[in-house]
Amino acid sequence: MTQVTAMLVMFVLYGVLPAAGLYLGYRGIKKVTAPKMLEYEAMPQLGYIPEKSLPEEVKTALAQINQKGEKLRVMYGDTNNDGKIDDKDTVNETYVMIQNLMDRHVPLAVADYRRLHDLDGARADTTKIKHSNVTGKEALLEVLRTINTQFDDLLNASYHQDGQKLLATNRYLQKRFDIPKIEADAPSLTHTEDTLTAIENPSDKSPKSEDIRL
Fold first, then answer.
1. Helices (H), 34-101
2. Exposure pattern of 76-109 as b/e (b: 16+ CB <10 Å)?
3. How far apart (Å, rounded) are the C-alpha atoms in residues 116 and 54?
4. Which of 6, 104, 113, 190 sits most deeply, having the most CB atoms within 10 A of its CB?
5. Do 103 and 163 meet the contact criterion of CB atoms below 8 Å apart?
6. Burial, 74: exposed, middle or buried (Cβ in 10 Å; 0-12, 13-18, 19+)?
């Protein structure tokens, strides 16, 4: 081993490897000790907020909005029913409203509450806002409840609308297939009835007794 090679090995062993170990250790400790952030697929804008900074009631309401909003986004955004929302879909007013609620109004409401909470955490949860009868926490919950109610109404409307489509499809299929079937069976039923009538009430065309004797 030459002197240069030996110096290079010493540099890696006593320089690079210890530095890399310290860096990885620092990153690992930082990751373990870092607060857990909010994770809402339909509202990624809230991903910078630590979970511990919001009351449990608020996080529950946000989880409900996230779940309902994701469903509604697909219902009203995937207009061509291809399983994804892209440029091929037709944007409507309802879809834009849903996106605005999740992208703007919810994050803004949460940010306003957090500013109040940062000023004085106890006051935001206990002190009534001037000229109102609610605290900062209650005001945020009212905003979230309003959005939740709106999403419930949209889900109900979508359910009944799709249900009416199913009923209309069923009526069409019954009309399309049942009526021709009845018409096709009608001649055979008529023929059967005529046969039974002929047996019970022989007509004048039946062979006479004299003809039989001949």
1. 56-77, 93-100
2. bbbeeeeeebeeebeeeeebeebbebbeeebbeb
3. 12
4. 113
5. no
6. middle
